[in-house]
Structure formats: structure tokens, C-alpha cells
Amino acid sequence: FLGAGASRLTSRFPDAAIVAVEPSGSLVERSRAQLRPPWWAPRRWTVPAAEVILESAPGPTGAQLVWANMVLHGVANPPALMQRWQQMLAPGGFVMFSCLGPDTVRELTSVYAQLRWPSPTIAFVDMHDLGDMLVHAGFADPVMDQERLTVHWNSAEVLCRDLRLLGGNVSPDRFPGLRTPRWLRRMHGALEPLRDSSGRYALTFEIVYGHAFKGEAPENAATETQVSLEE
Fold first, then answer.
1. What is residue 52's predicted lDDT score, i.e. its pLDDT?
2. What is each CA distance from 13 to 8, 62, 117, 165, in whole angstroms?
3. 3 state SS for the chain
4. Chain-centre distance of CA 110, in angstroms?
5. What was the pLDDT predicted at 13?
6. pLDDT in tens, 55-77
7. What is the pLDDT of residues 104-163, one digit of tens each?
8. pLDDT confidence band for 28 (50 / 70 / 90)
9. Left (φ > 0), alpha (ψ -120 to 50) or beta: where does 147 sit?
10. What is the pLDDT, as a whole number, of residue 61?
11. If you average pLDDT over residues 204-217, what whole number do you get?
12. Average pLDDT of the chain to the nearest whole number
């Protein structure tokens, strides 16, 4: 189960049969192109071709590994997606995922709060809550971790451009209309507190990692127990 990075996964597991799940038709076509082995690659004849399906289509079952890269934070109902992972996996299967955590762009959120603007992001879920969701979805032995990365930009204009490329603000509380060039210049000026000692604009990104196992299928208990007279 892939978000970004389909081609990197095939290089990491060259002999695996892979099904990629994408949320839109354009991403389906992109992943098909990335997952298509070159004509000279031996795996073209020895390994089944990777299958790419839409997220709305029925998913595969009996998978050994579900791998979701930077997907979960953009899902409206994470517990429902985890239930789908559970259905996809075979007993003893393994799920690995990464997503953005609540400290992501916290500096930008602080600027927006001071200006009394709506939040610039959706509400990212804490890693401990994600671990609880995994348990409730039926996964065993969940392990959660996180790290904070600082990304720098030389100008406010480039920073805003990159944030738009990451998906923009899909918060339901965002301003519903179009903004003016005057407002944009005001915003660029308001980002001055984001400069660090190097003079560049800095934002924090919290990356959350998690993995867990699907428990083995329980054995059916016998409905009748026989004990001999000797015993």
C-alpha cells in the first residue's frame, strides 16, 4: 500500500509481488509508470508485474506487508483506514507507515494564531493516539517513534510556494475565499519571525513512524472434550 515512493519500494524488495493503492487516476498512472521495470531488467520475466489500483476499489487480501508512506495524516478517518489494513493483511502480516505529527509547521501555526487567522493546517494526530488506534483496529505490538526535522528557505515566497506544492491548506476552518496580492505581501512580512540565526526561514516538520503486526488467527476451540475413565 503506497503513498509516495513506489519506485523506491520495488528497489528495496526486488522479488516481491506488489499492489499499489493510489487515491486518484492520475496517481495510478504515475505509479504504473514508476513501477514498470525497464526492458532489460531480469525481474520483468521472473516477478509478476506490480498492480496499481484506485483507493475506492476492493483491496487485496493475504498481504504480508502493508507499507503506507506519508498517507495517514491526509485521511479523514484514520481508524477506518487501519481497519482496511487489517483486512488486507494475512495473519502475522506487518504494517509500516509514516505521517506528519502535530508539531509540523508549528512556527507557522503560531504566526497565524497571533494574527487571529484560521489554522494553516489540518489537525495532525499525536503518535500515541495513532498507537491506540492500531490496537483498537486489532493490531498487536505497535511501536511508535517520531523525529523533528528543520527545513530552511531563503525567502518567504519560496517557502509559501513549497507549502502549496505539499498540498496547501485543506483545513475546513481555512478562509473560504480568494486572497489578494496585498494580503499575500502582508503574510510574507508576517513570516519574519521564522528567520533563524542564519537569516533563513525555518519550519519544523514532525515525522511519525509506526509499525505493528496482525495477530495470528485464533484456533477454534473444540466444542466437546473427552476424558477417559482411567484419567
1. 84
2. 9, 18, 46, 29
3. CCCCCHHHHHHHCCCCCCEEEECCHHHHHHHHHHHCCCCCCCHHHHCCCCEEEECCCCCCCCEEEEEEECCHHHCCCHHHHHHHHHHHEEEEEEEEEEEECCCCCHHHHHHHHHCCCCCCCCCCCCHHHHHHHHHHCCEEEEEEEEEEEEEEECCHHHHHHHHHHCCCCCCCCCCCCCCCHHHHHHHHHHCHHHECCCCCEEEEEEEEEEEEEECCCCCCCCCCCCCCCCC
4. 24
5. 53
6. 777 777 888 999 999 989 988 89
7. 999 999 999 999 999 899 999 999 999 999 999 999 999 999 999 999 999 999 999 999
8. confident
9. beta
10. 84
11. 92
12. 86
Q: Which residues have CB under 8 Å from 14's CB, separation 6+? A: 43, 47
Residues counted in the chain: 231
- CA pair distance 204, 75, nearest whole angstrom: 21
pTM for this model (two decimals): 0.78
Which three three-digit cell numbers place residue 187?
503574510
Query: In this structure, are residues 150 and 202 in contact, taking their beta carbons and an 8 Å threshold?
Result: yes
Cell (9 digits) for 127: 503518535
